[in-house]
Amino acid sequence: MDEAERKIYRRRSLRLPGYDDSQPGAYFVTVVTHGRPCLFGEVVDGEMILNAAGKVVEAAWRDLPVHYPGVELGAFCILPNPIHAIIILVDMGTKIIPVVEAGLRPASTAAKNYPLSEIVRAFKSFSARRINQIGNTPGQPVWQRNDYEHILRNDDDYRLIHLYIQASPARWPRFFSDLRPFPAACARRPDPVC
Questions:
Q1: For residues 110 and 130, what is the distance between their CA atoms, to the nearest angstrom?
Q2: Which backbone phi and psi does 116 adopt, to 5 degrees?
């Protein structure tokens, strides 16, 4: 493939240009299924009922702090085809994390601030691999390649997103039928919940 073809097929990044996404802070993330099928269960009377794949997604999300010590989880909501979540990256600074070496003696290693993009990639990989195992569909894409990320800049931004996540099941599918990302979908809504 020559340079002209690479430019045509290059995905446009949705990330803020020049922003270091390993910086401590709170982030709103939406990850959607590949092709948007409803894989994770169904909403019944405003409550999300997770199926086996949805439970895999929930377990993979809750497990992120085990793999990434600088991660704290805020509000999250798994819907039939997306997950909306707040993820908080804390500054690991000079913290030392014990690890087990081959000789089974604990050793210490300096903590690392992982970028949000790496953490989301790992979540998608962990969950997709397990979903494909239980569905006997090895190698099938589960998630869209891109995801939506928004830096939560202040307490009001955090509160607004938190309310949006909490209210998501009650508004499914009416509110999500246009499938636009958060800001575009909420810009037209007069109610403060969104």
A1: 30
A2: -55, -40
Total domain count for the chain? 1
pTM for the full predicted model: 0.76
Q: Are 131 and 53 in contact (CB under 8 A)?
A: yes
Question: Would you call 63 exposed, middle or buried from its count of C-beta atoms within 10 A (0-12, 13-18, 19+)?
Answer: middle
Predicted local distance difference test score (pLDDT) of residue 23: 87
Which CATH number characterizes residue 38's domain?
3.30.70.1290
pLDDT of amino acid 110: 54
Domain that residue 81 falls in: 20-187
Is residue 127 within 8 A of residue 60, CB to CB? The reply is yes
**Phi and psi torsions of 52, nearest 5°:** -60, -45
- Whose CA is closest to 142, among 133, 150, 131, 151? 131
pLDDT along the chain (194 residues), means of 10: 53 55 91 95 94 97 93 96 96 60 50 88 96 94 93 94 94 62 40 34
The strand ranges marked E within 34-136 are: 41-44, 47-50, 71-78, 82-89, 96-100, 106-110
Does some domain include residue 107? yes
